[in-house]
Amino acid sequence: MKLALAQMLVEPGAREANVARALDRISAAAANGAEAVLLPECLDLGWTHPSARELATPVPDGDTCRRLRAAARRHGLFVCAGFVERAEERLFNAAVFIGSTGELLLHHRKINELDFGRELYATGDRLGVVDTPHGRIGLMICADGFAPGQAIGRSLALMGAEIILSPCAWAVPAEHDNRREPYGQIWRDNYGAICRDFEVTIAGCSNVGPITAGPWCGRKCIGNSMVFGPGGENRLLGPYGERADELLLVEVQTGISGRLV
Fold first, then answer.
1. In 10 A of CB 126, how many CB atoms?
2. pLDDT tens-digit series, residues 30-62
3. Which listed residue, of 52, 67, 79, 155, carries a Cα 20 to 30 Å from 230's Cα?
4. What is the DSSP string of the chain?
5. What mean pLDDT is predicted for residues 143-159?
6. Separation of alpha carbons 74 and 102, rounded Å
7. 157 phi, psi to nearest 5 deg
8. Alpha carbon distance 215, 171 (integer Å)
9. Mean residue pLDDT across the chain
10. What's the mean pLDDT in 233-257?
11. CA–CA gap between residue 169 and residue 160 (Å, rounded)
12. In order of start, what are the domains of the chain with their CATH numbers?
C-alpha cells in the first residue's frame, strides 16, 4: 500500500480554509498514486482552539466528515483524518477512517487527552480495528500513543492491527531549537517499542502552523511526521518547522504484519 501523510498547515479556527486544504491534499495524494492518506489531528479548527464550541460538526453526516467521505469516494482511496466532533452537547477530539467508496469504517474519540484538553473535549471510551484489502487497520490520536503502559497502541496491536494510523498535532514552544534538541524522542520511545514488540507499523502525521488561542497559545505545530516499522525502526521522518507543509509518501507492505518495504 502506498500511504501519503499530509503534513498540512492548519489555520486556527479557519474551518472552511482548513477543510479545503485537506481536500486538496487528498487529491494530491491520489495524483501521486497513494492508496491511503493520513491527515492531522483537529485539522478543521486546530487542537484546543475555542472556536470548536461554535464550529464543530457531527460524525458521520456533518459538513467536515461528509466532505471527507465524498473526497475518498471521488478519488477511490482510504482517508484517515482528525477533526473536532459535535455530539449533542459534547465535543470530542475525533478521528475517522473512511473507505475508498466513502463509507465510514472506523470512528475513534481520543482517550488519552492532555489534562487541559479535557476542558474542551470529552473522553472516548472504545477502540476498534477494521479489515481492508491492505490489511487490518487500527486508529488512535496523538497522545493516545503514549498512554500509560502504551496501553492504547498495545491494545490495538493485540486486536490484530497490522498498521496503526494516528492523526497528530505535535507542538513545541515558539523558541524551540530543533538543532540543539531534535524533536520526537517521545514518539521514538513509544511507537518504537510497540512496533518492536508486535511487528506492526505506526504512522503519525502532524500538522504545521502557529497555535493562536487556547491553553497552548504561542506554541507552534512543527510537522516532523513519522512512520515506524516492525523492529522499531524510524522509516520516515517528515520535515520540521511551522511552515513545513508537505505531502510525504511511503510504501507499506500489508497483510504481512504491516511490514514496510
1. 8
2. 999 999 999 999 999 999 999 999 999 999 999
3. 79
4. -EEEEEE-B--TT-HHHHHHHHHHHHHHHHHTT-SEEE--TTTTT-TT-TTHHHH-B-TTTSHHHHHHHHHHHHHT-EEEEEEEEEETTEEEEEEEEE-TTS-EEEEEE-SS--GGGGGT-BPP----EEEETTEEEEE--GGGGGSGGGHHHHHHHHTT-SEEEEEE--EE-TT--TTTS-S-HHHHHHHHHHHHHH--EEEEEE-EEE--SSTTTT-EEEB--EEE-TTS-EEEEPPBSTT--EEEEEEB--SSTT-B-
5. 98
6. 8
7. -65, -40
8. 12
9. 96
10. 89
11. 26
12. 2-251 (3.60.110.10)
Residue type, 123: T
What grid cell was written down for 83?
Answer: 477533526
What pLDDT shows up at residue 156? 98
The cell for 202 is 505506526
d(CA 255, CA 2): 13
For residue 239, cis peptide bond before it (omega within 30 degrees of 0) = no
- CA nearest to 225, candidates 36, 2, 4, 7: 7
